[in-house]
């Protein structure tokens, strides 16, 4: 899917192979397609938003910024077959993100999540208060919706039967979350970015815990492979890590010093836990892009209260992960140097897992 003019927030469906061009004539902050149908949920954003979207406190006050109907923020559902808006929903505060399926339309605000029946007009099913959520964290697969809970570090899950489950995932604010395609696993990362956790759903049992690194980082994206055997993680360290879910599940067993990052040190008692934690089975670098010096990376903090209106986190999307199949991974970034990169996950001559870049391209010229 391609949308002309200023899409800053990207979402990455597993199964979409539809290609279409939409000239909306204004800034779009967030866009998500309903599977491979003609329906696309759009949120205005940027300097000249196509649809009403409040200016967020702290935005630049240069003459290029346009404020459209400051008392209304809208989600527009576009029907590409008729080239018209099927319906719209109005809100009094900025929309952080939209998730959509054939069953549900999920609208994420700064401190709440609204779940609607996907029909015209939409019917609200539920409304939940959340912790501060400027990155618009919300995942949806198999009619299961995951989003931050009311308390810091919690994940709340809603299913098609209106059942609600809470996972106390972290003690600090969430920075990223993802659902497996079957909806039977949830991956979470906090704003510290050092530990990634995988939870079983609906049991809420912790299946695995992985260490991305020792230094704190802003996690950009989490993505399960379609078969659920691997988890890809990107961060502002400009790295992609591939974690073996089975290795994490079996981490309670006696570690194999030959396979562990720290060798025999993984078996030495009383050393800090990072010497025995489960690390990625493969990693590589991706391109963050050539942004202005004063742009800086997306903040890891959930206290962010400034940036581009209508865009989760207030900055162009970086390091967005999506699997084309169980071995092929795409990494997409928006912004001044918008590009995609294609990576292959395979096995090297020594029998170890490896990830390497197969190609890349700038998609905005």
The separation of the N and C termini measures 17 Å
User: What's the story with the biggest beta sheet?
Assistant: 5 strands, mixed
The low-pLDDT segments are: 1-8, 14-18, 55-69, 262-266
Note the quaternary state here: single chain
Which of globular, elongated, flat, extended, rod-shaped describes the shape? globular
Strand order of the largest sheet: 2-4-5-6-7
* Tally of alpha and pi helices: 1
**CATH architectural category:** 7 Propeller
Report the β-strand fraction as a percent range: 35-45%
Order of helices and strands: EEEEEEEEEEEEEEEEEEEEEEHEEEEE
What's the Cα radius of gyration?
20 Å
CATH topology tier name: Methylamine Dehydrogenase, Chain H
Q: What's the number of structural domains?
A: 1
CATH class wording: Mainly Beta
Which class best fits the helix and strand makeup?
mainly beta
Mean pLDDT: 82
Looking at CATH, the homologous superfamily is: YVTN repeat-like/Quinoprotein amine dehydrogenase
Helix percent reads: under 10%
Number-wise, the strands total: 27
């Amino acid at each position: 899917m391609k949308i002309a003019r200023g899409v800053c927030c990207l979402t990455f469906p597993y199964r979409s192979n539809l290609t279409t061009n939409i000239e909306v004539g204004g800034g779009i902050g967030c866009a998500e397609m309903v599977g491979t149908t003609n329906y696309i949920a759009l949120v205005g954003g940027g300097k000249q938003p196509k649809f009403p979207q409040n200016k967020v406190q702290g935005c630049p006050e240069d003459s290029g910024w346009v404020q459209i109907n400051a008392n209304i923020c809208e989600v527009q559902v576009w029907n590409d077959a008729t080239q018209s808006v099927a319906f719209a929903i109005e809100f009094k505060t900025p929309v952080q993100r939209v998730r959509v399926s054939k069953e549900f339309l999920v609208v994420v605000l700064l401190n709440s999540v609204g779940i609607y029946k996907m029909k015209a007009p939409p019917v609200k099913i539920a409304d939940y208060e959340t912790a501060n959520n400027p990155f618009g964290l919300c995942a949806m697969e198999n009619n299961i919706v995951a989003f931050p809970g009311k308390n810091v570090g919690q994940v709340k899950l809603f299913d098609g039967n209106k059942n609600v489950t809470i996972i106390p995932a972290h003690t600090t604010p969430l920075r990223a979350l993802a659902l497996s395609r079957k909806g039977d696993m949830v991956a979470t990362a906090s704003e510290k970015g050092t530990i990634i956790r995988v939870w079983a759903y609906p049991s809420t049992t912790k299946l695995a815990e992985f260490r991305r690194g020792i230094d704190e980082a802003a996690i950009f994206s989490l993505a399960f492979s379609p078969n659920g055997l691997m988890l890809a993680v990107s961060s502002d360290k400009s790295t992609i890590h591939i974690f073996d879910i089975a290795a994490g599940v079996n981490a309670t067993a006696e570690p194999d010093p030959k396979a562990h990052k720290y060798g025999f040190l993984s078996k030495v008692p009383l050393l800090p836990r990072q010497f025995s934690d489960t690390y990625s089975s493969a990693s590589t670098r991706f391109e963050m892009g050539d942004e202005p010096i004063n742009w800086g990376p997306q903040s890891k903090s959930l206290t962010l209260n400034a940036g581009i209106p209508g865009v989760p986190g207030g900055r162009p999307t970086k390091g967005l992960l999506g699997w084309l199949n169980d071995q092929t991974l795409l990494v997409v970034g928006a912004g001044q140097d918008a590009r995609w990169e294609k990576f292959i996950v395979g096995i090297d001559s020594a029998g170890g897992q490896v990830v390497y870049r197969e190609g890349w391209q700038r998609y905005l010229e």
